[in-house]
Amino acid sequence: MCEALPLRTTCDYLGARMNDRLLKFERDAGTLEERLVAGLAKIALASRQELFRAGVESGVSAAQAQVLVHLARDGPATVGELAANLAVTAPTVSDSLAALERRKLVAKERDRADARRVLVRATAQGMKLGESLTLWPEFLVDGVSQLSDEEKSALLRAVLILIGSLVDRGVVQRARMCVTCSYFRPWHSPGAARPHYCTLADLPLAADALRVDCPEHVVAEPDRGRTARAAFSHRSATS
Length: 239
Ligand code: SF4
What we know:
The structure is a single chain. It is built from 9 helices and 5 strands. It has 239 residues and is mainly alpha-helical. A 3-stranded antiparallel beta sheet has the order 3-4-5, with no helix packed on it. A two-stranded antiparallel sheet has the order 1-2. The protein is extended. It starts with 6 loop residues before the first helix and ends with a helix. The structure holds iron/sulfur cluster. Iron/sulfur cluster binds next to loops.
């Protein structure tokens, strides 16, 4: 078709049409941000479905399963602590606890160190179930293990920065990440293979070793979600 005259006009016309189609095709796909969020939503949905499936098999709801997993993994906690750590409201936690208590999977007790605090703990039966439910993210571990080391490092970096920004905006109440911890000293030794430092462990930390869910975490005041970006950008700035 491009051989007929006016050749240039015809080719320009076809090129412009192709360009229009391409632009529309790319527009229809959504912005990069929209596609990333859609992908994250798919992973979140798959995780929730998997937890729901594991919970149904054990006779508990997904919300109850989350509470049990938390208690089995991190030990007794108050309702407020559970709500903050699971990023849900206290009434939601209370509903789950009432159902779990009826099934004798959790029990309440006074904190021996502070009698004003009421702690919830998993019973022996609840502990067993909670430990079995902690296996649910295996399908994600399998997926992540397919990534290259470089991709895993980049993903950890992106996840920490993203959660850090959610902490800053109050969407995530307690992230339990190194970058929001009062023991964290970013860039304690710039240029070293392990440039950061945990003053609790008294040990240096490599960027790839930063924790996402540390039981020893003590929230920095004010919470330092934005340190997540700083923990990585300093390296870029100095390298
Ligand atoms: S206590 Fe845990 S979260 Fe805090 S800096 Fe040390 S390893 Fe990181």
